[in-house]
Structures are given as structure tokens and as C-alpha cells.
Design goal:
430 residues, alpha/beta, 5-stranded mixed sheet, 18 helices, globular, binds guanosine-5'-diphosphate, binds 2-acetamido-2-deoxy-beta-D-glucopyranose, binds magnesium ion, transmembrane helix
Length: 430
């Protein structure tokens, strides 16, 4: 007994002492410049930022399809509840983030980040948002659209709104865009999944992965929340950015008339798309009017279009033009593929679908490679070739990890096809 209460006493003393130390550290470590910046009105800088994040433009489109018109808990009252809950934490106040990281000059493009995610992806997408913000968006404050086949929960909205510097929007996906179309034979689709499960094909037995790929192929750009934008940048959970981004990628796209862009390219896993090229050829025959005169067919095929070489741009990173995806050419392509059923009878990914579309429907000059955006999505890294670039942009990727010039990348092909000079030093990385 005596020994037990002695231990309890020690715990209490330790806790009190520890709390005192933490209090001392937290109060004494506020830099003096930060204290000077605390507005005397008692308003904190995050009151302003959370006002921005509470919801998107009050637009009737937000109410459609169960998308959350107001991301703040007090629905319909923009600017309200988020800031109230953000009471100053025990003497820790935000420094004036706008002063530390002032808005970049120049006009913003009509653009947004877009993320498809589940509530359970919260902490993985939080990492991605933080990196995108630190490396770029904290000076640009572009909006961020989150889409989900289920309603986002309050925690997801609270955390992501706090991390994003622009307005955040949360939307639900209509059921018909996340389910089997009427013409799909469910028994046949089930047999395919069972077969792919036995053959251990990645995501081969997953229904939700197929809905995801179909949604990213044909619907995300038509969601009501996306209609108000012209350009998008897709961000997935657990991606990394290794360099500062000094040039607004949306601006690069717009000013140079680019419609689609990539940082990594590779060969697709053929088991997932055995008949995708047959469907593509059918489309090309039916719609020759949609093929761009100066297209990149040679990126996709080594024999003038007879067979597909499996090259595709990796679509977990994309900066692209939404109006192009909403064009008749793209929609006709998607609908033609969708009717053929390969999203369910095989496991067509949105990466080859977007890539084939970009290569056939766009002129070569409309597809852009962002060398200066250093990026990682498991298991591949794009680390910019060129020592100068990496130092100037304060990159922290290891150039030896760069995938661009390795044998399984298609990026060399893209350079050759477009007669672009490869960055100096590429030969050392082959
Ligand atoms: N809402 C929702 N998002 C999903 C689902 N499955 C995947 N995603 C999202 O779709 C994207 C691709 O999924 P991911 O698991 O990263 O696939 P991978 O990159 O091909 O391995 C990510 O942004 C995921 O958060 C799902 O069932 N529901
Ligand atoms: C942004 O682009 C969308 C789609 O093209 C368009 O409908 C909208 O009017 C544009 N908004 C502004 C402010 O230009
Ligand atoms: C591609 O370029 C040609 C001229 O070479 C032009 O007529 C055509 O409109 C362009 N197509 C697209 C999709 O931009
Ligand atoms: Mg992913």
C-alpha cells in the first residue's frame, strides 16, 4: 500500500512539474515578432483564413446532388463556426501567415485542386495538402474540391479546411456515377473479379476501385462543384512534393494553351486492359472527326495504331483543362468505352483512359511535361533532372530516385516524339 501511494504521489508530482515546464516553454517561446503581430482587436489571423475555408462560393450548384452547401457546421452561415472553435491555444497564436508567406503577385487562373477521397483517407490526404500548401499554394490560395461517394464527416472537413489556404468545397457523388450501369452484366463482372482475385491482379477483385476508375475517367470534371472552374490539379493521398513551385502551374497551362500535363509516365499492367485498344480503335473509326491532326498516336503505338504499347501518363498527378474533358470529343470517347464495359469486365484505369484521350484528341503541343514539379506517389519518383533546377527550387529528392529515364518509363518517348531536348544529365540516370 505504502509503496503504491508513494508511486501515485510521484506520478502527480511528475505531472505537475511536466505541465509547468510545458507551460513555461510554450509561453516563453513565442518569437517577439509574432507577438507584435497579434492584432490588438483581439481578432486572430486564423479568423480570416477560416472565413475563407468555411465554404465555397454560395452557389446553387453546391446544393445539388447532396453536396454540402456549407462545410462549416453551422450550415448556411459562412464564416461562423470554424473560427469560433479556433480559440487561441494556451498562448500559442498564429503568426501572420500572410506576412510570412505573402500572396504571390499576379492574377489567379480559374482553377482548383481536386481530391477524391474517403473519410478514412483523412490523414493521408492531410499530408498531401500540407505539402502542396508549403511548396506552392500558401502563396496562391487556390480552391480545393473534395469529392466522395459518401458524405464527408465533420473531422474530415475540419482538418482539411484548416490545412488548405483557399476555399474548400465538399461534394457527394451521385449514385449513378458510382454504380453499375444498366447494360453491365453483373454475373459476368463478378466472374471477372473472381478470376482476377485468383490471379492476384492488383485491385482485381475490387468493386469500389472500378467505380473509382470509371468516375475519374468520366465524371469528376462534370460534378456541379467542378463546373465553375476551367483548370484542375488532381491530388491523391500520400503524395509528396520535393521542390518549391515558383511558377503557377495553372498559369503555365493557360498561357501556353496546354490541356493536359504529367510528371510520370510508364507502361500499364496489360492484364487490366486487354481489350482497351480494341475499343479505342472502334472509337477512332466511328469518330475520325475527333482525332487531332497533330496528335501523339506515336506515344501510344509503335506500329501506326495497330497495337497499344501500354504507355500512359500517371494520372494520380494531373494538371488539366476541364473544358477539354467536358468537350464533345472527350465525352464521346468516354461513353464509347463505357458502353464496351471494360471498366467492369476488365479493370480499365483512368490513367490509360485519360492518356489515350490526350494523345489522340489533343495536338502534341497541348500536352505538357512538368519537369520542375518533383513528385512521389508510391512507388515512383519524379525528381527533376538538372542540378541547377534542384538547388534553385530547394528540392529534397534524391536524383538517383528519378524514374524519368529508366527503362520502364515512357517519358523518353514523349521527348523524342516532341523533338524536345532532354535535360542535361539525363544520360547519367538511365
Ligand atoms: N471516395 C472514395 N475514394 C476512393 C475510393 N477508392 C479510392 N479512392 C480515391 O481514389 C484515388 C485513387 O485511389 P488509390 O487507393 O490511391 O489508388 P492507387 O493510387 O491506384 O493505388 C485516391 O484519391 C483515393 O482516395 C473509394 O472507394 N471511395
Ligand atoms: C471559370 O471557368 C468556368 C468553366 O469554363 C466558367 O463557367 C466560369 O464562368 C469561369 N469563371 C470565371 C470567374 O471566369
Ligand atoms: C490542332 O492543330 C491544328 C493545326 O495544326 C488545328 O487546326 C486544330 O484545331 C488543333 N486541334 C486541337 C484539338 O487543338
Ligand atoms: Mg493513389
Amino acid at each position: 500500500m505504502a509503496a503504491g501511494s508513494g508511486r501515485i504521489l510521484r506520478y502527480i508530482l511528475f505531472a505537475v512539474f511536466g505541465t509547468a515546464i510545458i507551460y513555461f516553454i510554450s509561453t516563453s517561446s513565442i518569437p517577439s515578432y509574432a507577438q507584435q503581430q497579434i492584432p490588438s482587436t483581439g481578432k486572430f489571423t486564423w479568423d480570416r483564413t477560416s472565413t475563407q475555408t468555411s465554404d465555397g462560393k454560395p452557389n446553387s450548384a453546391h446544393d445539388a446532388l447532396g453536396s454540402e452547401a456549407s462545410s462549416s457546421p453551422a450550415s448556411g452561415v459562412p464564416a461562423a463556426s470554424n473560427s469560433q472553435s479556433a480559440a487561441p491555444l494556451n498562448g500559442i497564436t498564429t503568426t501572420e501567415s500572410a506576412l510570412l508567406s505573402p500572396p504571390a503577385p499576379g492574377e489567379r487562373v480559374n482553377a482548383t485542386f481536386v481530391t477524391l477521397a474517403r473519410n478514412s483517407d483523412l490523414w493521408e490526404i492531410a499530408r498531401s495538402i500540407r505539402q502542396v500548401e508549403d511548396r506552392f499554394n500558401r502563396n496562391y490560395n487556390y480552391d480545393w474540391v473534395f469529392l466522395n461517394d459518401k458524405p464527408f464527416d465533420e473531422t474530415f472537413k475540419k482538418v482539411t479546411s484548416a490545412l488548405a489556404s483557399g476555399k474548400t468545397h465538399y461534394g457527394e457523388i451521385p449514385t449513378e456515377q458510382w454504380s453499375f450501369p444498366s447494360w453491365i452484366d453483373q454475373k459476368k463482372a463478378e466472374a471477372v473479379r473472381e478470376d482476377m482475385r485468383r490471379r492476384k491482379i492488383i485491385y482485381g477483385d475490387s468493386i469500389s476501385y472500378r467505380h473509382m476508375c470509371r468516375f475519374e475517367s468520366g465524371f469528376f470534371f462534370r460534378h456541379p462543384l467542378m463546373l465553375q472552374f476551367e483548370y484542375y490539379w488532381r491530388v491523391e493521398p500520400s503524395v509528396e512534393l520535393f521542390c518549391d513551385i515558383h511558377q503557377d502551374p495553372f498559369r503555365v497551362m493557360k498561357d501556353n494553351n496546354k490541356k493536359y500535363s504529367f510528371v510520370l509516365s510508364l507502361y500499364e499492367y496489360v492484364e487490366t486492359i486487354p481489350t482497351l485498344w480494341d475499343s479505342t480503335k472502334k472509337f477512332m473509326k466511328a469518330h475520325p472527326e475527333h482525332l487531332a491532326p497533330d496528335n501523339s498516336l506515336a506515344f501510344l503505338s509503335d506500329d501506326g495504331g495497330e497495337t497499344y504499347n501500354k504507355c500512359h501518363f500517371w494520372s494520380n498527378f494531373e494538371v488539366g483543362n476541364l473544358d477539354w474533358l467536358r468537350s464533345k470529343a472527350y465525352i464521346d470517347f468516354f461513353e464509347s468505352l463505357d458502353k464496351d464495359g471494360g471498366f467492369f469486365y476488365e479493370r480499365w484505369g483512368d490513367a490509360p483512359v485519360h492518356s489515350i484521350a490526350a494523345s489522340l484528341l489533343l495536338n502534341k503541343s497541348e500536352i505538357h511535361f512538368f519537369n520542375e514539379i518533383a513528385y512521389y506517389h508510391i512507388p515512383f519518383t519524379h525528381c527533376p533532372t538538372g542540378d541547377d533546377v534542384r538547388l534553385k527550387l530547394r528540392c529534397h529528392c534524391n536524383p538517383a530516385d528519378n524514374f524519368d529515364w529508366k527503362g520502364y518509363s515512357c517519358t523518353s518517348r514523349y521527348f523524342d516524339l516532341n523533338q524536345l531536348a532532354k535535360p542535361e544529365g539525363w544520360m547519367d540516370q538511365v
